[in-house]
Amino acid sequence: MPSWLLDRIESYGELPCIFYQDKSYSYKELTEEIKNNISFLEKNQIKKEETVAILGDYAFKTIALFFALFENKNIIVPITSKAQIEIEERINEAYVETIIKYDKEQLICKKLTTNKPKHEFLVSLNQKNHSGLILFSSGSTGKPKAMLQDLDILTEVFQDRTKRTSNMLVFLMFDHIGGLNTLFNALSMGASITIPENRKADYICALIEKHKVNLLPASPTFLNLLLISEAHNKYDLSSLKVITYGTEVMPESLLKRLKNTLPRVKLIQTFGTSETGITKVTSQSSENTFIKIDDPNTEYKIVEGELWLKSKTRMIGYLNHEMDNVTDDGWYKTGDLVETAENGFIKIIGRVKEVINVGGEKVLPAEVESILLQIPQISDCMVYGERNPITGQIVVADLVLKDGVESGKIKKEVRNFCKEKMDTYKIPVKINVVDKTNFSERFKKIRRKT
User: Fold this and answer.
1) What are the E-state strand segments in 48-103?
2) What is the C-alpha separation between 111 and 100, in angstroms, rounded?
3) What is the pLDDT of residues 44-92, one digit of tens each?
4) 332-340 and 346-351 beta bridge pairing
5) What whole-number distance in Å separates Cα of residue 34 and Cα of residue 17?
6) Distance between CA atoms of 115 and 422, rounded to whole angstroms?
7) H-run or E-run covering 183
8) Residues in Cβ contact with 132 at an 8 Å cutoff, skipping those fewer than 6 apart
9) How far apart, in whole angstroms, are the C-alpha atoms of residue 135 and residue 90?
10) What confidence tens digit (pLDDT) does each residue in 260-287 have?
11) Is 5 helix (H, G, I), strand (E, B) or coil?
12) What stretches of 165-276 adopt beta strand conformation (E)?
């Protein structure tokens, strides 16, 4: 019996669904492709309890395959990496039994043989007759964690969506909880999605103009790169109504520049983790980063400045790591530091693991970055800690300068500017002029660990 989600997709008929590689696909075509893929799974004897990896990023074909596996009650492992070593590691860590990929428009299925016993979490999900989803952490602080989600529960929260005409660009990747949230949200309400083939600022702006995109989900790092590129001046972005941002802390000064540059666009912060799913929040304003958690499926509390969540959509568990960030009574420690305000609003100000300890004083990199980005000569920056025998750590800043700015003078100007804006211990002691800051393919800052 088809799930409510497949019934919903089928009900939208000839409405436009997906724009990809200069082609458009209707909901009817997506439904037909899903059903064809279900037949493919049957012919290849892919049983419902199997864990199946999809190799590739968003495409019409991979989306159809994803929902065919969902209908077949499989546990799905989307893998977007092109690095063979990483692919093999993820296949092993996720207990993958079958690999499927598209090659020259053909589905290729490869069964794996292994003597490795199935993880107890996978067994328990199979026994519930539910589909599953395995996502991996970024791995910036060590081995990526393989987290198992109950996909039936994760998608259930979208069932109350009402029909809405809109075009959303799927910016965050196929193996990212934020990207999948955009996909589920769009398809549950009959909106269309535009799939990019790359994530360069010029190309993204060209797609917004071409397909009249209304909503762009992105990271602060990408949005700053967009401003630096000035791509927004080359294309007609008048269709764009909303930009949602998340995955990392948004510097207040960057948010203000975005609002000044795109005054008609509403800027909305999103919040979520792969461990807990996307949490419904309300942004206080397009001009600040305060949010209110108003999700009926999520409780929260703040413990010593850190945000803890208890969510209906919390993961079942890690397949390759201890659940040391989950309490015995079910609270997930997010690692996000928050500041509270009136009327239940909170602001995420940094990550516990990124705090710089200068002689016992705590420094948040995002706070320093927000001030540095106010300096006219600086287009981008990255702040992190470095070991120091006297103070424990010092504050270090990597700066990307605007064209024509002399690097020899910038250090003095930075320190003079910062003296008026922050405490002395927060001022960068070491300043490096770089060509670009370090960020991942997901446009999320990668801070150095020293």
Assistant:
1) 51-55, 75-79, 98-103
2) 9
3) 999 988 999 999 999 999 999 999 999 999 999 999 998 999 999 999 9
4) antiparallel
5) 13
6) 58
7) helix 177-188
8) 51, 74, 75, 76, 122, 125, 148, 149, 150, 151, 316
9) 9
10) 999 999 999 999 898 998 899 999 999 8
11) helix
12) 167-169, 192-194, 215-218, 242-245, 266-269, 271-273
Residue 141 scores a pLDDT above 80: no
Average pLDDT on 227-242 reads 96
Alpha helices in 337-406 (DSSP H): 365-372
Please tell me the CATH code under which domain 167-352 is placed. Answer: 3.40.50.12780
Residue 214: name the closest of 235, 197, 194 by CA.
Answer: 194
* pLDDT at 450 (0 to 100): 62
Provide the residue type at 436 as one letter: K
Say how far apart CA 167 and CA 169 lie, in whole Å: 7
387 burial via Cβ count (<10 Å: 0-12, 13-18, 19+): exposed
Q: Using the structure block, give the residue that is written with the tokens 């999809």.
A: 54
Residues in the chain, how many? 450
Model's pTM, two decimal places? 0.91
Burial class (CB in 10 A: 0-12, 13-18, 19+), 253: middle
- CA separation for the pair 28, 348 (Å, rounded): 41
| Amino acid making up residue 446 | I
- Helix, strand, coil percentages (3-state) for the chain, rounded to 5, are 30, 30, 40
Q: What whole-number distance in Å separates Cα of residue 30 and Cα of residue 130?
A: 22
Q: Which residues in 226-311 belong to E strands, given as ranges?
A: 242-245, 266-269, 271-273, 277-279, 281-283, 290-293, 298-303, 306-311
The closest alpha carbon to 289, from 229, 257, 245, belongs to 245
Q: What is the domain partition of the chain in residue ranges?
A: 4-156, 167-352, 355-433
* Radius of gyration in angstroms for the set of CA atoms belonging to the chain, rounded to a whole number: 23
CATH of region 355-433: 3.30.300.30
Question: CATH topology of 4-156 equal to that of 167-352?
Answer: yes
CATH superfamily entry for domain 4-156: ANL, N-terminal domain (3.40.50.12780)
Q: Which value, to the nearest 10 degrees, does the dihedral of the CA atoms of residues 118, 321, 383, 445 take?
A: 10
The token pair at 352 is 């516990």
